[in-house]
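Example with several molecule types.
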Amino acid sequence: MNFLKISNVSKSFGGPPVVNDVSLEVSRGEFFALLGPSGCGKTTLLRMIAGFETPDSGTIAIDGEAMNNVPPHLRPTNMVFQSYAIFPHLNVFDNIAYGLRKLKLPEDALRAKVEAMLATVRLEGLGARAADQLSGGQRQRVALARALVREPKILLLDEPLGALDKRLREAMQVELRAIQRKVGITFLLVTHDQEEALSLSDRVAVMHQGRILQVADPRTLYERPNCREVADFIGEMNFFHATLREIAGASATVNAGLLGVITLPAINLAPGIKLDDHILLAIRPEHVRFAASGVAGDIAASTFLGERSHFHVRIAGRSEPVFVSGNALPIGAVHLDFPSEKLIGLPIAD
Amino acid sequence: MKNKSLLLYAFAYLAFLYVPVLVLPVFSFNDSQFIAFPLSGFTTRWYGALAGDSAMQHALGNSLKVGIVTALLSTMLGLAAARAVTRYRLRGAGAALGFISLPLFIPDIVLGLSLLMLLGAVGLPLSLAAVVMGHLLVCVPFALTVLIARFEGFDKNLEEASADLGEDGWMTFWRITAPLMLPGIIASLLLTFITSFDEFLVAFFLSGTEATLPIYIWGQLRFPERLPMVLALGAVILAMSVVLVICAEYVRNLGVKNRVVGA
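Resulting structure tokens for the full complex:
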């Protein structure tokens, strides 16, 4: 579990901390994502792992070795930069061979190694291509190959797909995952794109204002976020104020105001919630159902999205609409049903 | 119509710039002591006189020595300073840049005079080494300006990527920074060499008995009969400058297209 071990790392650039007391463990061979909005400290954390920034406090260890005093060029990590940082004066072959100089391989062994890597990233035959004659997707592959050919213990990827258009990005997501399975190297991905993080990673850490809010596999993160920020950042979520009234065995009873008194599974409550706490009840738009009876509302707006539609439903006593995702368009007044097993309870930050 | 007059203006402008310069080689081949039209026949004797003038050759040697040393030193200093201000978060970087550039705004005559007094005060002899030091003050700001522009022109991530791929600071400089900086380095070497080569005032104050070429030429102007030879000298320098610039451009293109090992 502790192939990469980050313990209580903090960093500031003269102002408030950019990374604030972060601890994290990543296992060998894992595809791990740091997810968060821009400015949340995820890139700074990545750069500290690569050695480009020094933590103000805390330690970083890779495979049991403390990294704090190891300069970037001696670390067992390699990075795919957001700008790709392809060396403009070298061709594709020399870019990929750049990090192999110290191995002092004979010419044909070097060539074989680079050619094999070219094949892995599907750039066969492009070795002689000049750096400025590559498309965005090809530059991305060269950056990946150049880092992977050194067989790092951890590959660091800084928003690697951010510069690509949507279709290419989706194709590269699939391929990135396939390459990671093939080479078996630990991948640490930094992204602000929640879809990318969820679709690629074994586990995701959600960062916000320099702190890690939750570390979990994508499904857990989506179905059981542990706080409002995570729920909000990943997908869409409806929130209702409520108070926890009773916990009896496996079920919990809450008074949810507009929604009435609801009994839901106790495991749907985030850890740390106590009796009589004021909490947020949260439910995803696709879990809210139109029903014959329930909470009365009016459809204020609807968006057709192809296989399903997105509705804004106004209900009495609430200023924000309830977001509902469904595939039939009811007309006029509707009733909403909130299945209790899909409701989750989140703490209200104080 | 408008285009035509603009074209005419462009030609007039070019003529204004270059005709005076062309007068130099023309009269250097003119078989007369007097610099006046009409031309009175072709001769190469002024060039012959040039070849036999050992004082001139000595001054030329001095200028080349001072120019080359100044160009190398100021480009090296400029590289270090330019890298520091563009690649690191330094406190006082702005102030340091200001102080480095200040000699550009001090009249050379003031600079020459103060350096002369300083050398006298600390008891150092007037020499070509003193001229080099004076020229460094004037040339480093030029080098710095050219090199900072070039440093800002390429992605800082390239150097980080090199470190990430296992190269230390020194190898990163040789494999990434230097090749990418090459056009800037060449431009800086040329600019500082030319600046030093034709600098007069500072050299005049500091050179002592060792004349540089501008000082020598200035001295020759007192003898009208030697003027055609000075013109011949000017023509040679002109030709050398053109060759130098062409070479520099060639090397620069080489630097851009250069692809090292591999297929």
